[in-house]
Amino acid sequence: xxxxxxxxxxxxxxxxxxxxxxxxxxxxxxxxxxxxxxxxxxxxxxxxxxxxxxxxxxxxxxxxxxxxxxxxxxxxxxxxxxxxxxxxxxxxxxxxxxxxxxxxxxxxxxxxxxxxxxxxxxxx
Length: 124
Description:
Blueprint: H1 2-16, E1 29-35, H2 39-57, E2 61-68, H3 74-84, E3 88-93, H4 99-109, E4 114-117
Parallel strand pairs: 1-2, 1-4, 2-3
């Protein structure tokens, strides 16, 4: 499931990418990932996103994770990833506001020329 979502990112980026320069400038893409109680899936998604963004797209990027009031250890996993990768941004909601509010916060915070979102769970 993650593979299909990351291929969608490649398709979107290729659609809007300036073929002459193969780059957008300071920040090319923002990937927004709202999540709720996904501690077991976060590392898998992060690794796959890194693989696609580094190997297939090769643009500057940021990954914005929005922890939508998770009650499991999702925030701890996100903070660990953020400490190791300065391209990762974590927004933490104190309670669950829902996917729409989480996506809106991510889009508001995004700096990339192109932004898209992915669901973290295997049911997305």
